[in-house]
Amino acid sequence: MLTQSTSPAQEEKASRGIQSVDTAALLLQAIAEAGGPVMLKDISARAGLAASKAHPYLVSLIKAQLVQKDRASGCYELGPMAIRLGVSALRGLKPVKLASAELPGFAREIDHTVALAVWSNKGPAIVQIEESSHPIHVDMRLGTVMSILGSATGRIFAACLPEGKVRAAVAEQEPKTEEGLLRYEALRPELEQIAASGIALARGLEIPWINSMSAAVYDYTGSICMAVTALGPAGDFDAAPDSALARALLDFAARLSEQNGYIRPGC
């Protein structure tokens, strides 16, 4: 049977995309890489486009909620739809899918709010939250990037990830880079203890009346792939390292790690 061959010209035509979509993607990438609110001239420079050409695309991206503009400053940043798309992509990762199915039951078991976080290019990002029967009012939602040094979630990642990756993220998160890196160096002894125990404890670290603890979830390579964080009112949340709550969190994280093929040293 004879098959019709495809000419180079036909292959090139078939591989062509839609130029306007390509341009919009360049602008979204420029905003994402900026790491925060950014002016039109800077977006244009990053994307290699004239500001007059970039502006109409940004107007359309705002309508699609992929970008949002602050009226006071005139700066642009990623919009709610872009955040939802990013969270959806993160939740599609196999370890996250497995953990997502288990998280509601664990929240009911300990009767505290529980959150699942993965590492993003900006730091630990929340991909799922399960409220307890007595919800707490904290500024944490899907897509929230947690402080690396100022939260239990951030500290468990800082303890378990390679130093270079953590230092780069701290430098990007902290308004005063040198001060942030100095704080990181000062925390190194504590981070070593966290890495050894697999759990980070925080008593009123970010919010005075909220305690939290975060445990590492590992994959089959022995690397941290997620963090499970429990949090609750200081009066009802025992954040001691030997508490029943800490043991329950560690056991839950270990179960998730086993689902990912992790084998504990010595087993």
Protein described:
With 267 residues, this protein is of the alpha+beta class. It has 10 helices and 7 strands. The strands form 2 sheets. The chain has a 5-stranded antiparallel β-sheet, with helices on both faces. A two-stranded antiparallel ribbon has the order 1-2. The model is unreliable at 10-14 (pLDDT under 50).
Enumerate how many helices there are, as a single number: 10
Structural class: alpha+beta
How is the main sheet built?
5 strands, antiparallel
Order of strands, main sheet, comes to: 4-3-7-6-5
End-to-end Cα distance, whole Å, is 58 Å
What number is the mean pLDDT?
Answer: 85
DSSP, total strands: 7
Strand content: 15-25%
**Rg:** 22 Å
Low-confidence stretches: 10-14
String of helices and strands? HHHHEEHHEEHHHEEEH
Give the helix proportion (percent range).
Answer: 40-55%
Tell me, briefly, the overall form: elongated
